[in-house]
């Protein structure tokens, strides 16, 4: 059962409107030549060094500078490969911004609001959040820090968020600009390069893009699933099971492990540790939202192309590769040092309804055309329906343990039963 909705005070004061609903068109112009380059690279690498782990395969396919899936295309929207919640209208970004404002105010509204977004896509979520933050006048000493691997997407983000931006491929802060609200925005490839200081960190559909190793229980214990060239047709790839234990089995599988399938993401583990350390030592709040599970047995490695499932080994570089996020693992890692409080994971449906998304929807509908209403309602249903994104997407939040007393008295909104 959902708890009754406590609408945050901030939400009641949200009066402005974005009120357009579009599924923006994609410029899916990655040439076949670039996909062929990725395929050639993978086959050659396998021929030289033997079958590759799925983590290595994902890394090459998604982020290789020469034709990696994320590097040179806009994959969002109806004409792309998938649609994300921020792209479904303004409601999602507004709820996220209000959530941060509410929690930030409980921590005493620390000055210099450092806003960090991991994997900002088209910059839509950031744009919606900045609009809300500006409305509540909290941007005076704010800065925005975007972690983005893709030069093309960073350019789209800059176009959306800034008047102008400056790109320097070789710099650590590889793009700089100033938002329409006058907030400095910096782009990074590594989380570690983002300046220290109290931060709010949002990661929406980011962790699912990080490489995973796939392990399978066999008679001889856990063995890793690898990618190999198909000996019967050298133009094709196939999955094989490693004969021996690979390092990830030795390092990451506990002796009491019993699940049939495991998906292990050392990159996610490293990143959640970096985020947690920042929050513990410099203060901050993190919100991680993604599709995922709470440690159940999973075989979720898959590819999406044009909104349909696609074989992950066919035409590498032409489709998104993804795996469900293991929230139990992220939470365990975050809690390991004892310096972090973690809430969730809760379903997206619970989070958004408890945040009062319905209230905001009704408010927006009062000043909408019939067509805009349809768009808003479509987005609302997609995000909250149990058979759509409502249950599959989950939210996890992290706070410094030093604020335990405050949060015991005023628990984070959206994380109730
Ligand atoms: C699935 S999209 C999500 C976009 C956005 N958060 C949204 O919800 O619309 C993943 C984003 O993460 C970026 N990304 C993927 N892997 C990355 C990595 N290893 N380092 C930095 N950015 C990465 C992609 O370029 C893209 O912007």
Automatic annotation (TrEMBL):
UniProt keyword ATP-binding, yes or no: no
Enzyme Commission (EC) number: 2.1.1.320
Gene Ontology MF terms: protein-arginine omega-N symmetric methyltransferase activity
Pfam families, A to Z: Methyltransf_28
GO cellular component: mitochondrion
Keywords: Methyltransferase, Mitochondrion, Transferase, Transit peptide
Known catalytic reactions: L-arginyl-[protein] + 2 S-adenosyl-L-methionine = N(omega),N(omega)'-dimethyl-L-arginyl-[protein] + 2 S-adenosyl-L-homocysteine + 2 H(+)
InterPro entries the UniProt entry points to: NDUFAF7 (IPR003788), NDUFAF7_sf (IPR038375), SAM-dependent_MTases_sf (IPR029063)
Known role: Arginine methyltransferase involved in the assembly or stability of mitochondrial NADH:ubiquinone oxidoreductase complex (complex I). Acts by mediating symmetric dimethylation of 'Arg-118' of NDUFS2 after it assembles into the complex I, stabilizing the early intermediate complex.
PANTHER family, sorted: PROTEIN ARGININE METHYLTRANSFERASE NDUFAF7, MITOCHONDRIAL
Name of the featured protein: Protein arginine methyltransferase NDUFAF7
Gene: LOC108738899
